[in-house]
Amino acid sequence: MIPTLPDETGTGADVAPVPAVELRGITKNFGAVTACDRVDLRLHRGRIHGILGENGAGKSTLMKILIGLVLPDDGTIHIDGELRHINDPITAAKLGVGMVHQHFSLVDALTVWENVALGDVGQLDHGAVRERIGEIGEHFGLVIDPEARVGELTAGLRQRVEIIKCLRRDPSIVIFDEPTSVLTPEESSQLFASLRDVVAVEDRAVVLVSHKLDEVLSATDEITIMRQGSVVDFRPTAEADAPTLAHSMVGRDVALRSERAAFGMIVEDQDGSAPAPAPIERAASPTLRIRNASASGSGGARLLDGLSLDVCPGEIVGLAGVEGNGQRVLGDLLSSLVQLSAGEVEVAGRVIATQRPGAMARAGIGVIPEDRHDSGVVLDMSVAENLVLVDPKGVARRGVIDSARLDALACDLIEQFDIQCEGPDAPLWSLSGGNQQRVVLARELWRHPKVLVAAQPTRGLDVGAIEYMTERLRAAAADDVAVLLISSELEEIMDLADRIAVIYRGRIVGEMTRAEADLHKISLLMGGAAA
Amino acid sequence: MKARLVELSTLYFLSVMVALVLSAILVEATGGDWWPVVDALLEGSFFGAGRWGQTLGAAAPMLLVALGTIISGRAGLVNIGQEGQLLIGVAFAVYFGFRIGGPGPINVVVLLIFGAIGGAVWAGVAGVLRFRRGVPEVLSTLLLVTVATQVVAYGLKNQWLLLAPEANRGNRNQVSEQLATDNRLPRLHIFGNEIPLGVFIAVGAAVLLGFALSRTIWGFRLRMLGRNPRAAQRAGVSQSGFGLGAMLLSGAFAGLAGAVMLAGGGFQFGNYRLVPGFSASIGWTGLLVALVAREKPAAAIVVALIFGGLRTGSGFVSSTGVEARITDVIQGLLVLALLVPPAVMFVRDRRRARAATMART
């Protein structure tokens, strides 16, 4: 399936006769799984090429192959028409391929210029590095203070440092991997503006890897869509629209609100077909009440700074915010993993001791943690054991676990939550990420929690799994569970939450009902503007 | 699952063969003959008259030490100071055993209990340091071995501690009193072998521990703590409480092993007296047993038997004219051979799992 080139491009730049990069028949298998299956891709100078696909579609693997982090099993890479073997990132860099990674690789304790110079060999030339940062900043509108300490920068500025790090080597082919996941909407549009400059000014080829339809539609010139390791569609952006793209991505029509939210489409209710959730009557007393919570990290950094938040039974409260503003600490607090220096946590009117092992879980707080491998599951234990991690007493008699009862319970939950696994005794690590997440969900819901905390619950899941998760969260709220949804995906919050709170630097800086919610206002709050 | 088992046994077979061939080359190279050495090893450990009993007697304390190591290992703690915990256990048993007295059989129980307490105390020092002050237990347990050796040596020089009254020293100057005949663990006489009762204590403990680890809530929580302390903390398993408990129990097993060596006679452990060098490296060997058995109590029984056999057999090897220390080298090679297959399987499993997750991201 060799994509046909468009005759004209949105930029009006000359069509280069030879593509900057041409991938032919790239195939990569991991064990039995095919991550890339005979993928062909052409990147041209002067264009922004969007690569769109669900999680697991093979986009990241393909890009890792292009920058030499992963070696392909088959296929060839041609750069400017010449066959090249990219065996490691250094070769890639020499050939002018650079990548801005999804996760930052910066050293917090160092300054901006030090981070930029990181990896250089020989004597550091402070002046030259600073000068170059200044040049790049002016050139692309990425102004930054080279002497600022990276740890004190916002996520948007940190990403700017990453981009400068990449551009400093003057790459002619630049890959951006999911660049907006840590940015506020404002910062995202700024980023795309400078992206346009990068392309236009110096005739570079830019790749934007994303799973968000809206941003690919607005920022690219042409779009390649991947599904299950293969390229399923290629078209100029001018000829693309959201429903067709969504269809290609998933392989079927996408109709549900939650599905659309999963593609980064803000669900507005102008057509009236899907009315906003009716404002629920607030119960007299919130199930979960966090008052003035403050906590400090080991270095004395303020992680939570007087955070107050209520969640009522039957209500979904969405906690919006740019990642790294205390969401993880809040999740840990409600998992008995963090000690408060001030303030308290109440569940159903009772104050719960913080950091006492198991106290939060016993009080009825179920948690789907942001990183399930951190505190959500034990990878080396079986599926059945992971399902009773919190409360093994339910299947035990006098301290001895009744394996028949454990198996029965596990089989029941495996069926009820449709967990794909070899059986209750399969080790948890043998399950896919989505199914591990279902194990966590099953365990937390099975115990009929009073409060359910879902931190980035759909991260890394494909559309079907996202839909399932969203439905479960809605069902939990309908069962009078107080649901706290912590998410950095604004779309998800707008789709699910009855009430929205915005977190910034460890405190709640604004709260509103879904009906009052206004994207512009939320994104200003996320960026730290006073309410 | 079945294919896995075949694969694992093939790996074991191959690596043991490699170790044996290397050992043979080594023996030949140092001027010995390979077959007489093998012959002496087997004769000394299993086939010679009464050697079974000796081998079992040596294996029993190794197994007890290994069980303790398994407990701490399951909780994610690296206790490598069994040698010291064992010594302090014996010291406690001697000190309190001779002072409390009482009718024979009861005093045997008292000895064993104080042995366990002594081991627990010594491991507890490392445990408290670990959970109150964050001192890595790998370091503290190891260093405490040296301290324990010195403490016991000091005790053996002072009559108010461990040293026997002058009349009972029997021409030696650092020796505790000998246990009275009725203060010793009885032995069973089977087919011309004397089997110390400690063997049954150790095997019983292994069976019990195997059950407790796999079937009880205690074992479940212990494993949870070892594999993911943060998930355990959320689920209500206190790291300091449970971890400290595991450490104490681990030391108690080492101390118990020491008391069994003292009261059971078994192999040649100081002839019912505490003497310098009493521990005979049983603490270290027990640690190896746990390592080779990969923290499985049932496997530890078998491995302890093999190591016990090596220990008793090596005494016979010197009669062939080969340097007795060669058997230490052979033992080392065998340990490596037994450790390689599980390591290979582990690395391969992990690589597969990682490939599978990588493909999904």
One letter per element, helices H and strands E, the order of chain B comes to: HHHHHHEEHHHHHHH
CATH topology of the largest domain in chain A: the name is: Rossmann fold
Number of helices of chain B: 13
How many domains comprise the coordinates of chain B?
A: 2
Oligomer: heterodimer
Look at the helices and sheets of chain A and give the structural class. Answer: alpha/beta
CATH level-two architecture of the largest domain in chain A = 3-Layer(aba) Sandwich
Widest sheet of chain A: strand order? 6-7-8-3-9-10
Overall geometry of chain B comes to globular
Which percent bin holds the helix content of chain A? 25-40%
Low-confidence stretches of chain B: none
Beta-strand percent range of chain B: under 5%
Report the biggest beta sheet of chain B as strand number plus sense, adding barrel if it closes: 2 strands, antiparallel
The level 1 CATH classification of the largest domain in chain A is Alpha Beta
Strand order of the largest sheet of chain B: 1-2
Let me know the average pLDDT of chain B: 87
Largest interface: A-B, 44 and 30 residues
Kindly estimate the percentage of residues of chain A that lie in beta strands according to DSSP: 15-25%
From the N-terminal CA to the C-terminal CA of chain A, the straight-line distance is: 52 Å
Number of strands of chain B: 2
Structural class of chain B: mainly alpha
